[in-house]
Design brief:
mainly alpha; 79% helix
Length: 70
């Protein structure tokens, strides 16, 4: 189960990166968007979407942090 949810979380974060996060310069907006998408997945209801929401928040915040380090 963990690998299937991680793969879906990577796909969601990749879509967020290529569609939205890459264009934003302010890290606060990027963190807000990632956390909002993660919370939306948390409230979807199934166990898989809860895990995917947690992983999206973690991976997304890691990606935003890495982008703004350089």
């Amino acid at each position: 189960m963990i690998f299937s949810t991680v793969i879906l979380a990577i796909i969601v974060v990749s879509l967020l990166w290529f569609l939205i996060l890459q264009k934003l310069n302010h890290p606060g907006f990027s963190y807000f968007i990632v956390i909002a998408v993660g919370v939306a997945l948390l409230y979807h209801g199934s166990v898989h979407s809860i895990y995917i929401g947690i992983e999206v928040m973690g991976l997304g915040c890691l990606v935003v942090w890495a982008k703004h380090q350089s």
